[in-house]
Amino acid sequence: MDEDQSMTQLFDPDKFWDYSNQLYGQAGVKECCLTLQNHHGADINLLLLCCWIDQHQLVISEVALQRLIKLSQDWQTGQLYPLRTARAKLDRGSMPYLTALNHELNAEKKEQSALIDLLNQPQALNHKQPFSTGTNCVAYAGLKPFPLEEFSALTSAFAK
Description:
Elements: H1 3-8, H2 13-24, H3 29-40, H4 44-55, H5 62-88, H6 95-119, H7 135-143, H8 152-158
């Protein structure tokens, strides 16, 4: 197997989904992510992806990060925002609400899979840039932009 073939299999979307659920469930992370999403337009899946890649101590290339942002914006606009908006109009805890939530979570998982597919492409990682904790989150925040201080819950959960 050549290097390009092995790189296409570097990341598994199911492992990313499991990581995301584990991190999102930590104290303060959900609130931090929702604040970044609702007030600054961040994509929670992309935030979690940046954290996950940081856990691997790898750096997403700038071109790949821009493609990931474009993909996430298209996914948010075309899929998730309409589902989220429809769910918000339903009575919390009702069967229609729970069904809508399930559809939204399925769409979130599909977005994560699409993000991983893009990240598994050749040259998606920058092997020349030195890694430091939070590299990918800081890069995402710089391109979006949103305030780094809003990352406090993510960075503290990441440090555990």
